[in-house]
Amino acid sequence: KFRQFSAKFNVTFTADKKKTSVSGLLRIDYDSIIWISVTPALGIEAARFMLTPDSIQYINRLNNSYLKQNFTYINQLINKTIDYDMAQAFLLGNDFSLYESNTFKATIENQQYKLNTTNRRKLRRYVRRSEDDISIPIQTIWLDPQSFKITKVMLKEAERDNRKFLATYTEFEDSDGIMIPSEMDFRVETAENKIRIRISYSKIQIDKEQTYPFKVPDNYIEIKELQPVKK
């Protein structure tokens, strides 16, 4: 655990056989803010995101527009139900801290610990008024037996178009005694489509003082849907 996190990143997003690659800077204020600056070329910012437990905000500097939406808007983009706690956990290689953890069954598979659970529910004290009674139908976690770091997580919704989300962590970096994943691969699969997001981190810093600036210029136009950031 830590209070603040930052890293430079490279992301490759693949969907419908189309591939998009961007780079930028990620900052996290634990349990409060996920802040992302996208800089496709020459270090010039093209877009900025700020996620909180309630909302997602976005500035596109290439066409002078901005977006403000409820956090659930992300679910429409990736065709998967997640909340802020899940998004933060996936970016850091952690388990979900706001969900019950007393229903796992443990086995060993390919020399790793394997944890299985069904209908894992969000702890009631963390359910917001705007949320339904959130639960994870099927979840499997694989742990490295030496470091106990998560190497893979799979979420499945067998009753909903066989949806599956798979996160794989292949490289880790020691930052001030904390093991942080530096290479990760996310896959979202449904009966209709497949999405793949590959992320690599560099220059990871833990608990360094940082800011999360986000101000929409007065002349920017509000939009209702995210638009692609072009190089």
Percent of residues in β-strands: over 45%
What is the ordering of alpha helices and beta strands?
A: EEEEEEHHEEEEEEEE
Distance between the termini: 35 Å
Helicity, in percent? under 10%
User: How is the largest sheet built, in terms of strand order?
Assistant: 7-8-9-10-11-12-13-1-2-3-4-5-6-14
How does the major sheet shape up? 14 strands, mixed
The backbone outline, from C-alpha atoms, is: globular
Figure out the total of helices: 2
- The stretches of 5 or more residues where confidence is low (pLDDT under 50) are none
Structural class: mainly beta
- Kindly state the mean pLDDT as a whole number? 89
Radius of gyration: 18 Å
Secondary structure: number of strands? 14
What does this structure look like?
- It is a single chain.
- With 231 residues, the chain is mainly beta.
- Helices cover 6% and strands 52% of the residues.
- The protein has helices at residues 73-78, 84-92; strands spanning 4-15, 18-29, 33-38, 47-51, 55-60, 65-70, 105-109, 112-121, 135-143, 150-157, 163-175, 178-189, 194-206, 221-222.
- The chain has a 14-stranded mixed β-sheet.
- A hairpin with a 5-residue loop joins strand 10 and strand 11 (163-175).
- The mean pLDDT is 89.
